Automatic annotation (TrEMBL):
It is an enzyme of class 2 (transferase). CDD domains: GGDEF (cd01949). InterPro entries: 7TMR_DISM_rcpt_extracell_dom1 (IPR011623), Diguanylate_Cyclase (IPR050469), GGDEF_dom (IPR000160), Nucleotide_cyclase (IPR029787), Rev_trsase/Diguanyl_cyclase (IPR043128). This is diguanylate cyclase. The keyword Membrane applies. PANTHER family: DIGUANYLATE CYCLASE DGCM-RELATED, REGULATORY COMPONENTS OF SENSORY TRANSDUCTION SYSTEM. Pfam families: 7TMR-DISM_7TM, GGDEF. It catalyses: 2 GTP = 3',3'-c-di-GMP + 2 diphosphate. It comes from the Bacteria. SUPFAM superfamilies: Nucleotide cyclase. It comes from Dyella flagellata. The chain crosses the membrane at residues 180-203, 210-233, 245-263, 275-302, 308-329, 336-357, 369-386. Residues 433-565 form the GGDEF domain.
């Protein structure tokens, strides 16, 4: 059942990991409302341009045409770009909304028949009407349904990302907006939850691997939060306004840094790919250095950082991919979890980068897929961390067993027995539950070793230890004290019961019929018994049981003797024997 339960748990884990992708497909279909068909034209802005001159040029066909439903990249340097959208159908009489997706970081100005209407950006907090993941403008209710819509994409120093345009009724826009918001919120919640959970495990387990995972995932959340505008709306982090480009670039660099440090430990690069250990760690420290250079404000250093960041990102991504693949092939189980979660995200990132150059204009869902894939990666890597933690726990348990068990007899060694016996004494310290300690020493064991060899002695020790393990209760604490000496601590037994147990052990050892030198001399055991009394420690109990055992050694062996404190009154006189078991 344990193995079956583990397999079912893993299957459920992969199902949960796939949910963000299933939701992405559902949200894409649900958000596909009946948009107003559009045609479009654009031109780079120049000095002397006016809204009237641009509209005149549009009517004369002097602008470049494009399909607004496909992603189009517009230059934003210098003076920006003009965009004209021409509705080709009147649509309904409801209030209409113009949306620009993905949300551009730069500002956009909407012009109407009377001129300037509104300038808006994703980081704008002055307007109560906001789109989520997109820039949205309410179109004037009195505007003619087929009237052209004029936009000015204002200059921006950031990278000009491709955009598409849509005109929808207010109801259709709100449906698409709420669907995207639900999807994005769920994905971000998954990523943050997994990151914080990993941070808790990092603190509890004192394993920095979980901390690197937390840093990587939180940085990715910041990257996607800036790119989609989620940090501004709905989270409302207005203190980021003006620094969103720097924050986003820094988060990208730090995410690669944390990813390299994470993969170094998670995939055990030092063990499976030692030659790549130094490059991976160097990448982890190079990316923060680039961030520092960019934050200096010194033009030369900022330009250097901007020049270095993209090549380092590309080379770093390839390095991490090769490292994970190589360690996985060489036996690192966690590496396959990393590849399963990280490779699809890397592919999406490469495709998104290609879109920035004008490729793949119809794949407008890549930005949303990056959010969903981030949640997918968070779940997969969390499964990998859980698998790693379970493996480490099993390994530590195995090492603990090896450290606690006597290598020959497979019962507790002296150190482990001492710890277990002290725990038993502590657990029963404030109760009236009786505790007995047996000290056992095999008789004539040295003679057995001398006459038959150490191999025969080892076999005898194993047989005696196995017999005592079978005779005693599982909750009793049995251990090898050293050489041919054994100790056992029994709980909830009075002296008479403990004597009966010890007598049974004497008989069972003798019945093993392990010969010493001839048939009439067999291996036997001498046992001393001490009951816990007020003020006793483990050392004092062992000392008294040891004294009782030596009394048996001096008076015939193969017997049990119980030590009593009143015998101390007789000074050097022989302690009183409560019970003696003659040889069987």
């Amino acid at each position: 059942m344990g193995l079956l339960g583990h397999k079912l748990s893993r299957r459920r884990g992969w199902l949960w990991a796939a949910l963000p992708l299933i939701w992405l497909l559902w949200s894409t279909l649900a958000a596909a409302g009946a948009n107003v068909p559009l045609s479009g034209a654009w031109r780079e802005a120049a000095r002397g341009d006016t809204p009237a001159s641009i509209m005149a040029a549009f009517r004369q066909g002097a602008l470049k045409t494009f399909n607004p439903s496909l992603l189009q990249r517009f230059p934003r340097n210098a003076m920006g770009s003009w965009v004209v959208l021409q509705p080709e159908a009147a649509g309904s009489d409801e209030e209409r909304v113009l949306s620009i997706y993905p949300a551009p970081l730069g500002s956009v100005t909407l012009y109407g028949e009377q001129g300037f209407v509104h300038t808006y950006a994703i980081a704008d907090f002055n307007d109560a009407f906001h789109g989520h993941g997109r820039l949205a403008f309410r179109l004037a209710p009195g505007q003619a349904p087929l009237a052209p819509i004029l936009l000015k994409l204002e200059p921006d120093n950031g990278v000009a990302a491709p955009e598409r345009f849509a005109v929808q009724s207010m109801d259709e826009f709100l449906l698409a907006d709420s669907t995207w918001l639900s999807f994005a919120t769920a994905c971000f919640a998954v990523m943050v939850t997994m990151a914080l959970m990993a941070l808790c495990f990092a603190i509890m387990l004192r394993d920095v691997t979980f901390a690197w995972y937390t840093g990587y995932m939180l940085c990715y959340v910041v990257v996607q939060g800036v790119q989609t505008g989620f940090l501004f709306h709905p989270l409302g982090l207005d203190w980021l306004v003006g620094s969103e480009v720097l924050v986003g670039a820094s988060a990208v660099a730090l995410s690669v840094s944390f990813a390299s440090l994470f993969i170094s430990r998670f995939c055990d690069v030092q063990r499976y790919a030692p030659a790549l250990q130094v490059p991976v760690i160097a990448l982890g420290f190079a990316m923060p250095l680039i961030v520092v250079l960019r934050c200096t404000g010194i033009d030369a250093l900022v330009m250097m950082a901007q020049t270095l960041v993209n090549p380092v990102l590309i080379l770093g991504a390839l390095l991490l991919l090769v490292t994970a693949l190589l360690t996985g092939v060489r036996g690192s189980r966690p590496a396959w979890f990393f590849l399963a979660g990280w490779t699809p995200l890397l592919v999406l990132t490469a495709m998104t980068s290609a879109q920035a150059t004008g490729a793949l204009p119809s794949l407008d869902w890549l930005n949303d897929a990056s959010i969903g894939m981030g949640a997918f990666e968070a779940i997969v890597l969390s499964l990998g961390l859980a698998d790693r933690a379970l493996t480490m726990r099993r390994d530590r348990a195995s090492v603990q067993v090896l450290a606690d068990r006597d290598a020959l007899t497979n019962i507790l060694n002296r150190r482990a027995w001492t710890e277990a016996a002290n725990r038993m004494l502590a657990e029963t310290a404030n109760t009236e539950r009786p505790v007995a300690l047996l000290f056992l020493d095999l008789d004539h064991f040295k003679m057995l070793n001398d006459l038959q060899g150490h191999a025969a002695g080892d076999r005898a020790l194993v047989a005696v230890a196995q017999m005592m393990s079978d005779e005693l209760r599982p909750t009793d604490v049995l251990g090898r004290y050293g050489g041919e000496e054994f100790v056992a601590m029994l709980h909830d037994v009075n002296q008479e019961q403990a004597l009966q147990v010890a007598t049974r052990l004497c008989r069972r050892v003798h019945r093993l019929e392990i010969p010493i030198v001839r048939d009439d001399l067999r291996l036997s055991v001498s046992i001393g018994l001490a009951m816990r009394s007020l003020g006793d420690t483990l050392d004092t109990m062992v000392e008294r049981a040891d004294q009782a055992m030596y009394y048996v050694k001096l008076h015939g062996r193969n017997q049990v003797h119980a030590y009593e404190r009143r015998t101390e009154m007789y000074g050097a006189q022989r302690p009183k024997t409560n019970f003696t078991q003659d040889s069987p």
